[in-house]
## 1
Amino acid sequence: MFSGRQWLWLGVALIACSGGTKPETENTVDAVMAERPPASQAPASVMGEIVATNVSWADLYSRGNAEQVALFYTEDAVIMTPQGDLTGAAAIAGHFRALFATRADTILATKTVTEALDVAGDRAYETGTVTRTLRPRADSGAPSREVRVRYATFWERSPDGRWRMRRSLRAP
């Protein structure tokens, strides 16, 4: 079994090696499953669970529900941000509360594309892209815009059987 540091370096290496792009699809389990190559290392059931979790996370995120978003993380989860790492569910909830309170845009749509998902027992490693359509909240007259970010997430199956995020990195 990999240690946390080994998972991190594996993730960094995989991000560095992934240069190709795929066409984006709608944020549904069926669309993502259809996009996966037949030789995927992730069992279809795990892929379905993680994609469904991503859809739920994105919905709660776009509505600004910090407490519910934080429930998708393990108690000792780490979110890696440009300002530094946030560790633990309470710190993560606080981060999202502050982010949502100061958010200058309204999220109109979110599209998540899982590019790779590798599973080893009760741990999984996912990479992909998130594209959000944003509209400025202020009456600036500015048009809606799209923002696309790449992400890497380490997942862990919790004792209740749900997949939760243990470590997450989103990069512009």
## 2
Amino acid sequence: MIKHGLITALLLGLSICGRADFLPTTDDIPLMPGITLSETSDFSFDTPAGQILGFDGTTNKTADSIRAFYHETLTSLGWQKVRTDFYQRGTDTFQLSFPKEKAVRFDIMLNSQP
């Protein structure tokens, strides 16, 4: 899809120029500017079904602005919104949660099998 390719190229270009970061171990899920990831509570591990990733972040951004950023970004990259804060692309899933004020949680499942 041309739109998907253009968005990916733009995000990669921003990353190379040092103006965009991606969530660790992902190559096309950007970290929203203004979110700082925790270095102590994040995890990543492989299972027979795929890779499970979890990241905690802090921010002064509102939950609504974070939702809007990820909705626009993820849908342009081929993810479909299944329900509030939950997206799917093929067998991969992405979920946002807001466990407390000024905090955001990312839970990602990257399945290795179609």
## 3
Amino acid sequence: MLTANKLMPQGGGLAPVLLKRAASVELDWDVRQKSRFDITDSQGRQVGVFLPRGTAVRGGDVLVAEDGSLIKVMAAPQPVLVITHCTEHGTPFDLMRAAYHLGNRHVPIELAPDHLKIEPDHVLADMLRSMHLIVVAVEEAFEPEGGAYGSHEHSHGGGHSHDHDHGQAHGSSKGPKPLVLAPELLDDHSHDDHDHGHHGHHGHSH
């Protein structure tokens, strides 16, 4: 069995021709969040992966085996819940509120400007629907935020480094001000006194 103990985030620094020739493997998040696991790549080779503890492997990353060969990692589709705001009964701000509540529950969550994505949980799905949100079960790749779930953060592409001072590099003497959410905007606001039709009373599906 080969051993791979080096990870190249998004294949940074590798020539496209090398990536094209590399073996590949498709893994779901349950495996990719681990730092030690066994795989069988597209060439049929068994590989034991041993990365620094706390490392999470992202789709697009490249593992380097002990013989110098490369293995491209692809994020496998898996069951997830896609959460979007209801255009009839809510606003995009509802997604921010949802992220706040999910974060309080330490739920791995993928963030996008127009949707959130979490692993299936019927209790959380019911909570989200009570907050004007549309929750749909699908099978897609899952790339939750890093932080506590791994030391390797998501890639911005193009070699963008976070080592610089954002306040200076972006032409400002001060860094961005933190976002402060007013407490009254963050309560559970379950709307028991009126029905927003999220149980079959309007056209979209949950």
## 4
Amino acid sequence: MEAKHLNIVVMKHKINLALQIIPQVASERVYAVVDEAIAIIQASGVPYRVCPFETVMEGPYDQLMDIARRAQEACFKAGANQLLVYIKMQIRKDEDVTMEEKVAKYDNN
């Protein structure tokens, strides 16, 4: 059988990535540990929006995945023994995805 080669699309466009991290820690420490993850996102310089259940970021795929990894590491450093991590992404093949296109009409309400 002949080996098939996959064409890999380099994702250079901006995407949206929603990150939710639920750390396994005492209930009174959950927000403090999540704050450590959000601090990583804030320090990254990418556009982001903190929402009640997740934080949404905008930027290149590889950069956002690296931020998500570092946010998880920060939670472990803050004392979590286990994490539940949920990631949602919107990716377009040939153009950027922006948070503004989805929420701008609601920002003035």
